[in-house]
Input
Amino acid sequence: MFTLDDVRSAILAHEPELVTPGATTRQAAVAIILRESAVGPEMLFIKRAEKPGDPWSGHMAFPGGHKDPIDASLEDAARRETLEETGFSLEGSTYLGALDHQQAQPRGRVLDMLIAPHVFEIDSDPVFAPNYEVDECVWASLPAMARNDLHDTETKLLDGNPTIFNGYRLSSRHFVWGLTYRMLKTFFYTVDPAWQPPDEL
Output
């Protein structure tokens, strides 16, 4: 279930739903990086550094960030941001394709901002050199997430009120939730339209 062969075939055949940005729309991109390991297919996450005023401070995420004027495309933005944040270059990786654009909704606020996930496959065991924006780089089992074995909940404050959030608890105990959790579910549905999401609270 959810082998890299499955992923390659599905992503290469996928026609992503793209958002046409407006004049003021902020554009960002993330890299969903996959590899085969001794324990099966894995996906890379980063833990963002704690930063006051950042709505994604300390969150688990995919490498990525805003599109800059030097970026020819959102794919290029994902590549550049991955190098800047993790110290690892995606040059030489296999580019599989794009997923549907996502909309940013930090703490329940809908922003005029689109996020474009781009999927890459690597065949190495990279040594990371995270910059000041990233605390950790973490690999997680793709099949275990797809089977919902890692589904969990965590209570966080939203506008001062305790709120239960669904997500995936990685073996490192990090909790993947929010936008990254939504992108993961989009990824799973893209690979297998019959995928069953977890029973969410």
